[in-house]
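re: that complex we talked abt at group meeting.

here r the seqs, copy pasted straight from the sheet so there may be weird spacing, ignore it
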Amino acid sequence: MKIIFLNGPNLNLLGTREPDIYGQTTLAQIEKSVTERAAMLEAQVEFRQSNLEGELVTWIQQARERFDVLVLNAAAYTHTSIAIRDAVAASGLPTIEVHLSNIHAREKFRHQSLIAPVCCGQIVGFGPLSYLLAIEAAVSLIAKK
Amino acid sequence: MKIIFLNGPNLNLLGTREPDIYGQTTLAQIEKSVTERAAMLEAQVEFRQSNLEGELVTWIQQARERFDVLVLNAAAYTHTSIAIRDAVAASGLPTIEVHLSNIHAREKFRHQSLIAPVCCGQIVGFGPLSYLLAIEAAVSLIAKK
Amino acid sequence: MKIIFLNGPNLNLLGTREPDIYGQTTLAQIEKSVTERAAMLEAQVEFRQSNLEGELVTWIQQARERFDVLVLNAAAYTHTSIAIRDAVAASGLPTIEVHLSNIHAREKFRHQSLIAPVCCGQIVGFGPLSYLLAIEAAVSLIAKK
Amino acid sequence: MKIIFLNGPNLNLLGTREPDIYGQTTLAQIEKSVTERAAMLEAQVEFRQSNLEGELVTWIQQARERFDVLVLNAAAYTHTSIAIRDAVAASGLPTIEVHLSNIHAREKFRHQSLIAPVCCGQIVGFGPLSYLLAIEAAVSLIAKK
Amino acid sequence: MKIIFLNGPNLNLLGTREPDIYGQTTLAQIEKSVTERAAMLEAQVEFRQSNLEGELVTWIQQARERFDVLVLNAAAYTHTSIAIRDAVAASGLPTIEVHLSNIHAREKFRHQSLIAPVCCGQIVGFGPLSYLLAIEAAVSLIAKK
Amino acid sequence: MKIIFLNGPNLNLLGTREPDIYGQTTLAQIEKSVTERAAMLEAQVEFRQSNLEGELVTWIQQARERFDVLVLNAAAYTHTSIAIRDAVAASGLPTIEVHLSNIHAREKFRHQSLIAPVCCGQIVGFGPLSYLLAIEAAVSLIAKK
Amino acid sequence: MKIIFLNGPNLNLLGTREPDIYGQTTLAQIEKSVTERAAMLEAQVEFRQSNLEGELVTWIQQARERFDVLVLNAAAYTHTSIAIRDAVAASGLPTIEVHLSNIHAREKFRHQSLIAPVCCGQIVGFGPLSYLLAIEAAVSLIAKK
Amino acid sequence: MKIIFLNGPNLNLLGTREPDIYGQTTLAQIEKSVTERAAMLEAQVEFRQSNLEGELVTWIQQARERFDVLVLNAAAYTHTSIAIRDAVAASGLPTIEVHLSNIHAREKFRHQSLIAPVCCGQIVGFGPLSYLLAIEAAVSLIAKK
Amino acid sequence: MKIIFLNGPNLNLLGTREPDIYGQTTLAQIEKSVTERAAMLEAQVEFRQSNLEGELVTWIQQARERFDVLVLNAAAYTHTSIAIRDAVAASGLPTIEVHLSNIHAREKFRHQSLIAPVCCGQIVGFGPLSYLLAIEAAVSLIAKK
Amino acid sequence: MKIIFLNGPNLNLLGTREPDIYGQTTLAQIEKSVTERAAMLEAQVEFRQSNLEGELVTWIQQARERFDVLVLNAAAYTHTSIAIRDAVAASGLPTIEVHLSNIHAREKFRHQSLIAPVCCGQIVGFGPLSYLLAIEAAVSLIAKK
Amino acid sequence: MKIIFLNGPNLNLLGTREPDIYGQTTLAQIEKSVTERAAMLEAQVEFRQSNLEGELVTWIQQARERFDVLVLNAAAYTHTSIAIRDAVAASGLPTIEVHLSNIHAREKFRHQSLIAPVCCGQIVGFGPLSYLLAIEAAVSLIAKK
Amino acid sequence: MKIIFLNGPNLNLLGTREPDIYGQTTLAQIEKSVTERAAMLEAQVEFRQSNLEGELVTWIQQARERFDVLVLNAAAYTHTSIAIRDAVAASGLPTIEVHLSNIHAREKFRHQSLIAPVCCGQIVGFGPLSYLLAIEAAVSLIAKK
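got the structure back, here u go
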């Protein structure tokens, strides 16, 4: 069982900026928790972050050969990128959308996700726990197949 | 740790109708899985379903004295009920919104949740697994307090 | 051949209020005409009215075991209730939407029916005659099956 | 009792094309059924079809001298023609709008009828039965006068 | 002179929750002040609260026989209930809409009242004083008749 | 000086229907007044009416060789016909839009004219006088050239 | 206790024009009733009317030094003047918006008040009684401070 | 026969600025032509211009005692002033809206007139000729009474 | 291989009017080029133009028996005619939409084509070349079958 | 080099009210700073403030003879006044729009400026510094000519 | 004659994914066909693909020195990228927009192209044939110059 | 005092393309003027340009450690990039948005800036002078801290 976690723009700043919205945990710490939890569930994870929309598109394309599930936090691109949506749809990978903050309680332009309609499901608003719940969901999705 | 699960209109039909959208598991089966998983996490759960908006409002109001977390699948009322939103906000209970289907991949009028902005987070699209993930999230929310 | 007629909020006032919009016939009189006409067509009818959205939802759910066709005048809930729409869709019953008044000639918020897309057809604007035409349509729908 | 049935663009193709939407009955067959049913109700009917918006306008204008009720299936012009709406309003004839398919369950631009607000009532979604119900409604409207 | 006060969903929580928006006075205390003020103006009042949209509809229907004026705080249903609007219009009772908070200074979806167009007037934003002003207005409306 | 007056759908009914909106003068009477007034201003007029959008398009195309000014009351097509707009623009003729009724005081869909932006000017709301003022304007436009 | 009543454009015509909307009482008569009622409540009132948006702005600015409460009927400017809204917000005076007619039952452009969000509360639809209720509310607001 | 012409903001600049839109004739020259033409028709005219919305409101109010018809070019206030609309409605004077330029061929925000719905008619796009046509229309309106 | 080219309103004026938008080639010249190119590709073409929406509908209906591909320049009707859209859908003919000008670089109301969703493809903006490219596309579509 | 600074409604309150939005500097202090900075750049400035939309219109009209550049803070009228926009366009003066606060970070109705499209440029959000930057920009604009 | 073909995000997956929408031909195969056809027309082509919006911008900028025509399939960026639009406009190169699928028959957000208004023309919906038609169009555009 | 100037897509073409919109000065020349002016104000500047949204995001993230103020001309990304907005907000750097052209006088989609709400202020429309004014503003912002 191999799961890839892709993280979008500005998530590399996690834990150092705007902690009232995004919390104080860094992306590295989330990666560590996720890896440990995955190990308990006998899954392998890979973790990446990019500020470039096109690089995320490329990674999603490449993922379909090497991974069973994609967990995607596209951050700001969630609301503007049809290219990422198309990549997810084209990849054919079961995809789980996650967000740290509750996007529905923020600015109106963050309420709509262009990517959600081509995902299996969405987990939003639980901070780093969103990622841990996503592993569990991912493992369950793989098991079903 | 006490968690209440409230289910909105038509969820009593689960498993017997429109299985391509909602799956073949009944609400009773979901309740059973949820109770077992909760027991493993040393939490108690209560499960209710109503077709009446106002009854759901009343249950939410009553929940705040007896429960630590509310898990809410308001079904169709998700998109039309300000009364339920107000009850959630007034209850002061940490609330997790769940949906069996991916509401963002369905009709446009199901994309917006009036309740989400007053919840902690949302878990949508994983079928009965959405409920199981919600327990884990609930337990974690209680632990944080 | 068994047909259920469900009537929404304020239809219990029929004949006593706003006769310029809804006519002077009471709901009981409509029920009587409908029963007679049904008898002529060898069909049985049951007639109910509720002001509660959730009670209508429950009645629709229960109807699917005992009736062949549902004739539904959801009145004000026509324009606001996704819960009733979902109940109709879930019931799998052939459903005919009726209205006494021509909803398209009234306030803008009465022009759209949330329920119509999951019905077989709609008959609006003929006063009590709308109900009589609905029986004929219902009998014909049953005959086709 | 004289009733005119006017049919708009493409209805001449009925029964030969897109039978999954419009059914397999031809317009001639509908005319035959309608004529028979009318005869039973001691009414005379006339049946016409045109692809020309302006010709429909002219026929509606002429109808007011020779007919008691107009039954109108304006097809595609239902959603775009103010000219037909004005003709109906100017004719002063009681008018019944009919559609074979359930226009509310199709593309969004078919949901709104510009003509409905100046008609007595609407019957949609019952296939050729829509026309038969319209005769009954027409006879009833004439009887009331 | 008999005046009925109907209160919508969540108003039973008044005084115990979100006091920064709704104040610290309970509904029972408001009822007491209203009763006293009414007595001074030689009017009788009755006070009710329900979380159920349909129950409010029923109470409004019943009020028209026994009361001279209806004072209505439909709370969340103000913005979503055509059924309550229809009940008010059908009741024929002079109706005064009241709100404790200034709905125009809150979320956008609270700015529009579906009920206001069928009321005589509106009093919003003065906390419990809104109810007291409503008695005075009610007595004055009765006096005019 | 040659001026053509083109009249759109339903204007042939003028004077016989809906006199509260369109007045009691017939189109023939208007034509007579217009011809007389034109004679006084040493202009010739031609008067036509059609219910067919395409026929109006053809007449506008033909007018450019034989007339100096076009006076156009496109009636219902005013609000829906890009084809007539294109014909006016292509004709290169100075064009004056007229309406008998004040279209801005009627239904919302009559407020916008698709044709106005390609005309010189608009005269609306004066009944048959609108046509007489148009002659004067037409003569003045020709004089300027 | 000093209260200023500011009245916007066309209110000087009160009682002489459109009595079906605004009633037959003149502004002078309202001022008299208001002054008497105020005297009973030991409050002083000042009454002004202007057709000039900017003059109303200036009066609101000046009021903050000399008055305790502002009662404002901005009439037509209610729906178009951000300048008056800014003046109210800048004045820091507790402000009560009043309207004689029920603005929510009139044209759509009168439904929204730009000023309401910066007022304490709104009283609309009671004719001259709206002003008398406003005094009572004003006195109560002062008493609370 | 007495006719008042009221001109709104920036019309005092006429003839000296933006001649491609508004022409080269000054307001004084228009006044002169209008006065001469009026004299021929045995009518008296008065001509005023103001940049102040409120002053135009006041002049409209005063006009109803002294004039038979109001000709109004509210210029920019045409699209933003409910106060002027209310004044026209309250004045009860037959009112003719005029514009020099074709407002429908300019920026989108100039297409809608808030004043038109309370006028008898509109004449737009003929330059100074718009004013001369308005006299003729005014005289005709007076004659009808 | 037989291809029909249908041309909508005002295209008969091609080459003589507004050459900056539509070029200087006449429709007859386009027909000649098209016929020659078709001959080279061993295809037969027929060329028609009508200003009447309904006539275009009729021609499209008739085309399905005698032609293999429809090339359609519906001109102004592109943006307003559901009737033509329905005819194309009903004909079942592979259809190619062409436009001489780049409709996306013109007025906003020309950006949307009601017909495009039921066509195979669209070629816009290349002047007469659009027609020549359409033949090539048509021949290729036929070859594929 | 002569520059006029025109200030709109409520700016006379600057420094005494809502200092968290507009800062603590008074308009007189801004005028002083501006005059000093202008002197250094060998420019003369004139400073005015009005609450009256029409007075601002008049001042803008008059400015074109006596000044080289207009610096305009129309305050609330920025978002509602077409009259001021027209005056700026008619004046032909190079105009610089300034705002003390960042209007894009405030209420939605302050995001759009009706005046900006006819100005050279905009400087917003720097408090009194916005005015000083405007002088520099003004001097530079004059120098270019 | 040198023509550059630029392809946007996910087009590198062509032929291997979602063949029901995009067909089974790979981008390499399209390049080969295009090169061959170009050779026949004595044109040289260059073919590139990128998932990065900014890289496409850069390539468009560079193209203007080395190529005569740009053929652009911006894929998902078609609907979201003003940057690519600006690059096309700035490049001054005649540009042809192509799409494999008929974007007008897909999701609503694919109907609008931000790039089309700055292109010469558009060819959509013909699969790989769209590219071949584009060469022909390109050669013709160059020939005209 | 260290100030970074970041420039978005296509600004590298400055001075060579579309000079009527963007002027004839190159970005290098602007950098030179800015550096000189900065030196006079004892500030250091760094200047960068990228066509890649994600690279701009990264540069903004890195800027917060090394610079005191960010001056940002995000060009086309101004209107589409939430990612850049989030980077600015996350950086915590005082940010000044600049544009060479007056974006409010151009296409509608350029009127809204997604970035402006998280900036201190905006300077638009002065060509290269916008950048020089920004230095002055930046120095002043640093001085205030």
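couple things i noticed - The mean pLDDT of chain A is 95. Helices of chain A lie at 19-22, 27-40, 53-66, 82-91, 129-144.
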